[in-house]
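User: Can you help me understand a structure? I only have the sequence.
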Amino acid sequence: QVQLLESGGGSVQTGGSLRLSCVASGDTLSNYCMAWFRQAPGKEREGVALHIGRGTTAYADSVKGRFTISQDNAKNTLYLQMNNLKPEDTAMYYCAADRRGYFSFLPRRYDDWGQGTQVTVSS
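Assistant: Let's start by predicting it. Here is the structure, written out as tokens:
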């Protein structure tokens, strides 16, 4: 089991940028498929970006070209660089770890979750 702690959320205007961080403890992130999810009020949790192995990544269509997921194994930290933010990106953002390597956007494939960090984008 890995413990995850997100930070970096905040309030920005449309077109702004934020970088989210997810620090892991209790295990090594390189042992997991890692992901960022988000959940807006009244909506289902949705997968945003995936990272596995030495840098294989995948993105939801809604964030392609704007968001970048990366991982620093020396710091045991997962990142999500978010550029050109839009009001529809407003949500609570969670990092999650999948120890079986499904590389999936389905929340049920993930075993460990952080507590989330809020991102608010105003128009």
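Now, to help you interpret it: The chain has a mean pLDDT of 97. The CA atoms of residues 87 and 121 lie 5 Å apart. Let me know which part you'd like to focus on.
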